[in-house]
Amino acid sequence: MEKNTDTRLAIMNTTYQLIAEHGIQKASFALIAKEVGISKPSIYYYFDSKNDMIYQLFEQFCSEISFQHFFNAEHFTQEQFSTQLIEVGFQMIQEQANDPYFGNVMKEFLSLAARDDSYKGRFIELQQDYLKGFEQLLLKAADWSLIPLYSLTEKAHILALVIDNIGNFMMLDDTVDYRNIWKTAVQLVFLEDGLHG
Amino acid sequence: MEKNTDTRLAIMNTTYQLIAEHGIQKASFALIAKEVGISKPSIYYYFDSKNDMIYQLFEQFCSEISFQHFFNAEHFTQEQFSTQLIEVGFQMIQEQANDPYFGNVMKEFLSLAARDDSYKGRFIELQQDYLKGFEQLLLKAADWSLIPLYSLTEKAHILALVIDNIGNFMMLDDTVDYRNIWKTAVQLVFLEDGLHG
DNA sequence: GTCTATATCTTGATAGAC
DNA sequence: GTCTATCAAGATATAGAC
Known about the structure:
Shape of chain A: elongated
Radius of gyration of chain A: 20 Å
Oligomer: homodimer
CATH class of the largest domain in chain A: Mainly Alpha
Largest sheet of chain A: none
Number of helices of chain A: 10
Low-confidence stretches of chain A: none
Largest interface: A-B, 48 and 48 residues
Number of domains of chain A: 2
CATH topology of the largest domain in chain A: Tetracycline Repressor, domain 2
């Protein structure tokens, strides 16, 4: 039985928007059904329960914001390393700014993760991907003698913290030049006369 | 009529914990009353509605995490500036780590703020306090020629993003040395041969 | 696949006695 | 101030016809 029909996609897309607008709890099957234009019990043909449906949405959400999705180590060159790192950060900031639902949905999933270990575990994976991912990236830069090994891990984590939190700050205050913050963060990490043991 | 009784405090403290454990929606008046050891309608003697009560808790929560609460510009000296900044950050990290409910409650309020402008407005105030606060702090350091004016605003914002997000990351992964990340971030900002125009 | 009808539970809130 | 009793609304989920 093939269940990846248009109806199923319509339910998931509509739910994504309704979660952003009203939160998970208030995005009821009644509301979703009304918005999609079907009856409430029809949703149960595609999903076992509301929990099941929310979790499938969550899995899809996570796969689209992985470290690898944005930062591919193979695309970095010795000559343009920091410039490329700045550019990829810009793309990430832009992509999240272009999806008006992204921030709200993220906040909903984060509050879910605070109380549910399934969600929490997935977020831990995601976070460690970013922490380790930036570390691998800077190690590559160190191989090319672009930065020293000293404090390399801490620098990687600073970049992870900054790029991650820019999205949160953007939601509340859009008068700040976040691209410039990211650019400065990368430049500080790649300073020639940087921190030394 | 004096309503700041022990019962009122018990209700608020219990609610704070229950929100951390079950989220705002599932922290029902029935559950709160049971936990406090009173009947459900008794809560209405102290609060007009659930919204009223949650918002009062939110106001108290916000006042306890203001920039001024941690970073008082008058306590910084020319000789020990960066060391003091590192130390105050350590205290902030420690204080949040000591309250096991803090992170979860914060996530709940953030998801509320995504859909309610009253909450959102208060969070914007808080965020701008931190952004402006760090900027004022670095301006003071610049007056003392401890850092150049170039990229000063961006550096201040980097510090705000890092210290704020450390709390979020700590919740998911406690194997990372977050104190060292903060220390490195401050050191990068205060590098003698830093960024220049 | 999609529907109508309905069961069951939980919620925030009120009435009114003491 | 605190209680018992109760209401109306909204939630998830199921039964069963088409």
